[in-house]
Amino acid sequence: SLHDTTTLHNGVKMPWFGLGVYKVQEGEEALQSVKSAIKAGYRSIDTAALYENEDSVGQAIKESGVPREELFITTKVWNSDQRNDSVLEAFETSLVKLGLDYVDLYLVHWPVKGKYKQTWKVLEKLYKDGRIRAIGVSNFNINHLEDLMSVAEIKPMVNQVELHPLLAQSELRNFCKKQEIQIEAWAPLGQGRLLEHPVLKEIAASHNKSTAQVILRWDLQNEIVTIPKSVKESRIIENANIFDFVLRESDMEKINALNENNRYGADPDNFNF
Ligand code: NAD
């Protein structure tokens, strides 16, 4: 169910499934999408300082009536705060906007060169102080993870990366599995661009499911945490309705064969923001 969790290497339980809110407008849009999701049974919300909607996410959490401890809230420190050495201030600002006294997961949004190790020290301190239940990274390739772990006291619990059938990230997934770092997919639906893929459509038809549901089910069967975004209540409900069917081994193989190492987002080894 939507409440099913993976256990991170520090024992904290994180839902396999959640709502992403990238590019969701602060105000009514963010408020309504998060409230609809929680009403539909979602317990995990993925935001970031960059998305500029933490205020509305926080308001939705309050208005949802679901006890705080039943929710799993993720936010992220943005690159400019790494460059300005203002990670601690950024964390405090996010907490105030969210109206929370802790977050469940705090992520280093991108591996800013020459900065992410210092950033990690701040996250480790916040974690040890009990301000964050789990700490992790985002957009880290194997080289970034190895470099970070060469100095880290605490291994990241999560690595959130672009991952979908056209960018399967097999090597990174294997590496993270060995290191007990939970992989989480961003843009699981290829930001909506994979929904007309003929192979996915055919598999979906054979299960009487939508293409989105097939992709999200593929994530779960691969032990990938997934956080599809939608602001439409009907799609928020549809995306979560993936616990009543199972992809066959042959379906999984067909989807696995679609990988083209095709990124829609920036390359973590070479980005300029
Ligand atoms: P996504 O793959 O979740 O696609 C979302 C888009 O797909 C929607 O805007 C909508 O157009 C379409 N869609 C969703 N459900 C649908 C359905 N059932 N039927 C038809 N169309 C549907 O893309 P995303 O929002 O970029 O990624 C998900 C989340 O990952 C984000 O919201 C954000 O929380 C996170 N994210 C993180 C990073 C990072 O750098 N860490 C980057 C991008 C996104």
From TrEMBL:
The keyword Oxidoreductase applies. Belongs to the aldo/keto reductase family. Its EC number is 1.1.1.-. Keywords: NADP, Oxidoreductase. CDD domains: AKR_AKR5G1-3. PANTHER family: 2,5-DIKETO-D-GLUCONIC ACID REDUCTASE (PTHR43827), NADP-DEPENDENT OXIDOREDUCTASE DOMAIN-CONTAINING PROTEIN (PTHR43827:SF3). GO terms for molecular function: oxidoreductase activity. This is Glyoxal reductase. The keyword Cell wall biogenesis/degradation does not apply. Residues 25-260 form the NADP-dependent oxidoreductase domain. It holds the Pfam family Aldo_ket_red. It is an enzyme of class 1 (oxidoreductase).
